[in-house]
Specification:
Strand content: under 5%
Order of helices and strands: HHHHEHHHHEEHHHHEHHHHHHH
Shape: globular
Largest sheet: 2 strands, antiparallel
Low-confidence stretches: none
Helix content: 55-70%
Radius of gyration: 21 Å
Distance between the termini: 52 Å
Structural class: mainly alpha
Strand order of the largest sheet: 1-4
Number of domains: 1
Number of strands: 4
Number of helices: 19
Length: about 425
């Protein structure tokens, strides 16, 4: 039964491990339940109900992750993507002046295009065209990226006008708590304690109570209705240049964030074959495409595969049972939102840092002695955290791979798909000139 539903193999997989992994992933991505409504609150003046966005966020995560669990049978969680939600609100609506109904229509079109690209195996062909060196670099870059997210969310790294980033203020209690959490989680991992990262989150949250950081504001609440934002589309402007640019941008960010997440996490977890190909990749992409389409109907931004899934995979999650545990957690979160949202970022940030460490291993597989491989790989992995974008790291890394090898006359290393991708990526950056 478990094998048929989730790809779970008794003797090879552990129910306890899969469930613990799912809970761990949920706890590291649960912040979206608070962050997404907060971002969309900037559109409240245009009639976009912030409370409804909370429920839409949870439902989009539930639908997308359930498809991932039962159809793709992989341990990845999905939810409205960070960066994509900001593009929706601050660029499309507040920057370009379009209403949120227009933006939701763009996401619906994007989701439908994703389904078509997946059915025709175009997305799978793109992944297979990525050189193995870049695949390894993607995994390492995501590790740096997720560790950076963890350090920033924990307050250990903060913004600086002088140096862009700097060390946080250790006179602040959240920074102290995050450091305690990092030490605690690290010790548990070093001692190979099963569920160590989840235990680290829970214990750090409890320590935060006497420190005045963990705040409980109730336990149970009824999910708000999504009626004000459900299926609110605007069709009369879909054949415009702006719509084309917006859909194109959503499409590329979502596609390569998902590719980066799936490839990077799968390579690190050994969930690939000898050629570095990910099993059931077409089904993973279909889950992502269906989630995006459903999210648009529910009233939220592009739903994508979450890099925080790496935390659950690091805990041993390998099957759809892990993602099903994530689904159950999101269902509970809809009714126990005050309780789940009480977990401070100082408790989840340290886990992301440790996950970053786990994802460094593939760096040894990069061909550092061959600079035609090493330079694009380095650009890929370094730009993800510095540009704060998985997709930009992948796109610039692949552009540089094609340009460097072409100029050096190494045309045999460049497949037809790589040429096409490089041209499209360059076109994508050129289009940015028109959207600001």
């Amino acid at each position: 039964m478990l094998y048929r539903l989730f790809g779970f193999v008794p003797g090879k997989h552990s129910v306890k491990t899969e469930i613990m992994a799912g809970i761990t992933t949920f706890l590291t991505m649960a912040y979206i339940l608070a962050v997404n409504p907060a971002i969309f609150s900037n559109l409240a003046g245009q009639g976009m109900d912030t409370n409804a966005v909370f429920t839409a966020t949870a439902l989009a995560a539930i639908i997308g992750t359930l498809v991932m669990s039962v159809y793709a049978k992989k341990p990845f969680g999905l939810a409205p993507g960070m960066g994509l939600n900001a593009f929706f609100v601050f660029t499309v609506c507040l920057g370009m002046g379009y209403n949120w109904q227009f933006a939701l229509t763009a996401i619906l079109i994007e989701g439908i295009l994703f389904i078509l690209l997946t059915l025709t195996n175009v997305r799978t062909a793109i992944v297979k065209s990525i050189p193995s060196t870049l695949k390894n670099a993607i995994g390492v870059g995501i590790g740096l990226y997720i560790a950076f997210i963890g350090l920033k969310s924990a307050g250990i790294i903060v913004s600086s006008d002088a140096t862009s980033v700097t060390l946080g203020d250790y006179s602040q209690m959240p920074v102290i708590l995050a450091t305690i959490g990092l030490v605690l989680t690290s010790v548990l991992v070093v001692l190979n304690v099963k569920g160590g990262m989840l235990i680290g989150i829970i214990v750090t949250t409890l320590i935060g109570i006497p420190m005045g950081i963990t705040q409980f504001n109730g336990v149970v609440d009824t999910p708000p209705s999504i009626a004000p934002i459900f299926c609110q589309f605007e069709w009369h402007k879909i054949f415009t240049p702006d719509m084309l640019i917006i859909v194109f941008t959503f499409l590329f960010i979502d596609m390569f964030d998902t590719i980066g997440t799936v490839v990077g996490v799968s390579v690190k977890a050994g969930m690939v074959d000898k050629k570095g190909n990910v099993d059931r990749l077409d089904k993973i992409f279909m889950a992502d495409a269906v989630a995006t389409t459903a999210g648009a109907c529910l009233g939220t931004s592009t739903t994508t595969t979450y890099i925080e899934s790496a935390s659950g995979v690091a805990e041993g999650g390998r099957t759809g049972l892990t993602s099903f545990a994530i689904v159950v957690c999101f269902v509970l979160a809809m009714f126990f939102a005050p309780l789940f949202l009480a977990i401070p970022s100082a408790a989840t940030g340290p886990v992301l840092v440790v996950v970053g460490v786990f994802m460094m291993a593939p760096i040894k597989n990069i061909e550092w002695g061959d600079y035609s491989e090493a330079i694009p790989a380095f650009l890929t992995l370094i730009l993800m955290p510095l540009a704060y974008s998985i997709s930009d790291g992948i796109m610039i890394g692949m552009i540089s791979y094609v340009v460097i090898n072409a100029i050096c006359g190494k045309f045999n290393k460049i497949s037809g798909m790589l040429w096409v991708l490089a041209i499209l990526f360059i076109a994508r950056y050129v289009m940015n000139l028109f959207i600001g």
